[in-house]
């Protein structure tokens, strides 16, 4: 019998008010986020986390004082484990585990669980559909350090990204169609809102923006609505540096000036958390009213939706140890993206 451990990776989130500041410190102390030498990065992370903690606590207070991300991920893990074992041969048994980057369960904690499971093979599956050096690469590096330290030597398969995977696309298209029906006859624009990145990270070769655009294009195509008005935009900007454009708030204001209603899709998030429940629903909802947007509807994340989980299961079934691939089994990004972790374009 082969015991296969599937590890789901995500950012994590504070599980209570006291966890907010250390969570923020862990985030800003990541070399993939603040790209400075360790001593300086440590000091900056301390400063930023201390300054931002009061505001962040207020944000989390809007949703009960804690992030729902772990609970959402547990539901996804349970659904995926059930489906994988339902479809598995008699020789295989799957266990699905969760490793968060900036709060519990940390990679080193999950490594211990995977060792106890007795994994013969490990499948690394990020819950970031679009690859970035700041998310997937950081999580993979963190896991590999923890695994090496713990002596976990089972062969590993790595999935870098799946921006246009059929299950993800279908799941989002169905959720959007439901909102279109709810919108009725009112003229509207579809906004695909993704978490932003500093422009300099993309300029250095990060394929995230390109992959976000591929997801939006695939979903819009799946909706197959004549004359569909859609745009990609970016939210959650932090700090004074230039970030990816256009910003979600600017697009909301533009829609208001055109007297267009909005359907907003969290296209880079597969789970509900503060950026969807507070930033999109509450903060941008208020901005939409102020900007004169006639109607503002937000599409839920795919969460543990049937099509999305089925897509994850298909990708796991096609993964091979020793490889790092996109959801199609080969490199997705065009040449020129220096941060792409897959092999040369096939």
Structure in words:
The chain is of the alpha/beta class and 346 residues long. Among the domains are: 17-61, no CATH class; 166-298, Rossmann fold, CATH 3.40.50. Helices cover 46% and strands 16% of the residues. The chain is built from 11 helices and 9 strands. The chain has helices at residues 20-28, 38-61, 69-87, 107-117, 136-150, 166-183, 199-203, 208-223, 248-257, 274-291, 306-318; strands at residues 2-10, 92-100, 121-126, 156-161, 188-195, 230-235, 261-266, 296-298, 324-326. The strands form 2 sheets. It has a 5-stranded parallel sheet with strand order 2-1-3-4-9, with helices on both faces. A 4-stranded parallel sheet has the order 6-5-7-8, sandwiched between helices. Helix 5 links the parallel strand 3 (121-126) and strand 4. Helix 1 packs antiparallel against helix 2 (38-61), helix 6 packs across helix 8 (208-223) and helix 9 runs parallel beside helix 10 (274-291). The longest helix has 24 residues, at 38-61. The radius of gyration is 20 Å and the shape is globular.
Strand order of the largest sheet: 2-1-3-4-9
Task: Write the element-wise H/E pattern from the N-terminal end onward.
Answer: EHHHEHEHEHEHHEHEHEHE
What are the low-pLDDT stretches, counting only 5+ consecutive residues below 50?
Answer: none
CATH fold-level label of the domain at 166-298 = Rossmann fold
Broad CATH class of the domain at 166-298? Alpha Beta
How much is the average pLDDT?
A: 95
* Helical amount: 40-55%
Oligomerization status of the protein chains: single chain
How much strand content do the residues show? 15-25%
Give the overall silhouette. globular
According to DSSP, the number of beta strands is 9
Distance between the termini: 34 Å
């Amino acid at each position: 019998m082969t015991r296969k451990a599937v590890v789901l990776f995500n950012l994590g989130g504070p599980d209570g008010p006291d966890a907010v500041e250390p969570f923020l410190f862990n985030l800003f102390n990541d070399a993939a986020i603040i790209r400075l030498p360790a001593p300086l990065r440590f000091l900056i992370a301390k400063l930023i986390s201390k300054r931002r903690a009061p505001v962040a606590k207020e944000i989390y207070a809007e949703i009960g004082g804690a992030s729902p991300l772990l609970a959402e991920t547990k539901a996804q893990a349970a659904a995926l484990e059930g489906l994988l074992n339902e479809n598995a041969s008699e020789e295989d048994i799957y266990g699905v585990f969760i490793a968060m980057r900036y709060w519990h369960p940390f990679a080193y904690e999950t490594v211990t669980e995977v060792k106890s499971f007795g994994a013969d093979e490990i499948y690394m599956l990020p819950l970031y559909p679009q690859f970035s050096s700041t998310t997937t690469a950081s999580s993979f590096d963190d896991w590999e350090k923890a695994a090496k330290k713990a002596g976990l030597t089972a062969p590993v398969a790595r999935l870098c990204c799946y921006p246009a995977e059929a299950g993800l696309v279908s799941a989002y298209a169905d959720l959007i169609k439901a909102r279109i029906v709810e919108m009725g006859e009112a003229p509207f624009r579809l906004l695909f809102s993704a978490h932003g990145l500093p422009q300099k990270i993309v300029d250095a070769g990060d394929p995230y923006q390109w992959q976000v655009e591929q997801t939006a294009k695939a979903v819009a195509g799946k909706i197959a609505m004549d004359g569909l008005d859609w745009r990609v935009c970016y939210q959650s900007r932090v700090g004074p540096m230039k970030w990816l454009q256009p910003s979600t708030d600017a697009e909301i204001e533009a829609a208001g000036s055109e007297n267009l209603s909005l359907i907003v899709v969290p296209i880079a998030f597969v789970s509900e958390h503060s950026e969807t429940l507070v930033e999109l629903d509450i903060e941008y909802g208020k901005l939409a009213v102020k900007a004169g947007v006639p109607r503002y509807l937000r599409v839920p994340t795919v969460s543990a939706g049937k099509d999305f989980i089925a897509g994850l299961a298909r990708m796991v079934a096609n993964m091979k140890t020793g490889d790092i691939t996109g959801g199609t089994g080969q490199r997705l990004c065009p040449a020129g993206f220096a941060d792409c972790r897959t092999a040369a374009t096939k």
